[in-house]
Give the backbone structure.
Amino acid sequence: MSGKNIHLIGVPMDSGKRRQGCLMGPDAYRTAGLADALRNLGHSVTDQGNVAPDPFTAKPEDRVHARAENIAWTAALSRTAEQACADGLPIFMGGDHAIALGTVHGAAAHAARRNRPLFMLWLDAHTDYHTPDTTASGNLHGTPVGYVTGRDGFGGFLPVPHPVPHDQIAMIGLRSVDIEERAAIEATDITYIDMRQIDEHGIAKPLSAFLDRVRAAHGLLHVSLDVDFLDPSIAPAVGTTVPGGATIREGHLVMEMICDSDLMTSLDLVELNPFLDERGRTAQVMVDLTASAFGRRVFDRPTRAY
């Protein structure tokens, strides 16, 4: 992989769910040495600081948690993402997964401006395909895929003029999907790979097939990596722990394959809650995975003493 022009963008967004702590994520990535890890691999890295939401007026709580604040974050992040994608490869240091409402919206606008298709790789225990009308929890971190694919129910949010087509999305690592979401996903052309499929057939084959499709379409690739993609024994600092996730080697293999493809054009790192971490262990794991996506190899990996 040749040297990339990487923009680190902090997103201290903590409004996509009720459990607090993800607003500390950007500083945890900085403390864990993300910038230096990428520079040591030969990339140009600029930390652009933290994004702030657009001005908003908090309204009485309805069944959807912090609706106005999430709308404000989405607008600010869409602008930021579109600009950053035009100038390099942005890494959005979240922040809960509701950041993807804005980051993918902006990446899609950038792709449309370049007349290229946007593909999305969703590495997560959850599909996040709900809408504000269907979510039982009222937490909007469970809705980004629904929003960016153009589902109804997002009144007040930015319109979605460039929805990501379902057949340009792959979800890998699924293991916690409610009945309604499962039915909705199964009615689409989304590629979804749950942990049983990974156990039976491995993780490399479906990922390789998806990356081949991105390449054949001359597409741009947005990768959204949730901490809960990994097993909580490896990465405990997440408020949505689901046992049975990806192993550390599966995680690194995915990121190494993304690196080999040289297709990724933007990246989310989401749901890191340092308040739940063990001596920075999860932050370091996420930094190491990111380094694998940008050229670090097995032989280069440092020994860790958490």
About this structure: The longest helix spans residues 67-87.
